[in-house]
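Running this now, will post back.
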Amino acid sequence: ENKKNPELEITVENFMNDLKYYRRENVRVMLRNGILEKIDEADKISVYKSIFALCDKKIAEQLFKLIGQFSVEMLELDLKNRNHREFVSFLMTKYLRKIDTKEEADCQRLFEIACIVENKPMLQYLIQQGRAVSKYPKLVTGSLELFALIDKIPGGVMDSDCKVAFLVEAALSDHSIKAIDLLVEKGVDLAEKNSEG
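Update: finished.
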């Protein structure tokens, strides 16, 4: 009797189980066989995040070929997990211009995530595009190497609110003295007042 292995049946239930139990080869096969067409539209972001949680570069490439662009929401994995941080950083570098940044709110969230995973290429790209300006003070929350990206911020972009936010973040950072010294070197006055005084 020729019984079919239920794990190889292309069903949403089997696909979700394969994701849950990290059966990468089965996930690849199901993606090749059009499983995404069977996923409800409302569930797709959640499924994409589960696919990324596998931290598999080949599967990510396969997914990109199928959907053509990644959203910021897809990158919102458990960033306390080192493997997830490294994988999200890899995705940001490889698909730098293929992540949807049409909305400013997405750029702001992307900037925050890039600070968490310490992805300099994405941060430089967003700064060059003049996006997520209100999140620039988050540069202080990373390493001093990341904070050095303040040099890439064009003059005149930071208003008094942004400068005060930089000072507050610097004061709260693990490397507060060095961060404040760097801000002063960049011309931020310690007596700077924001719009609320």
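Residues 19 and 122 are 28 Å apart (CA to CA). More later if anyone needs it.
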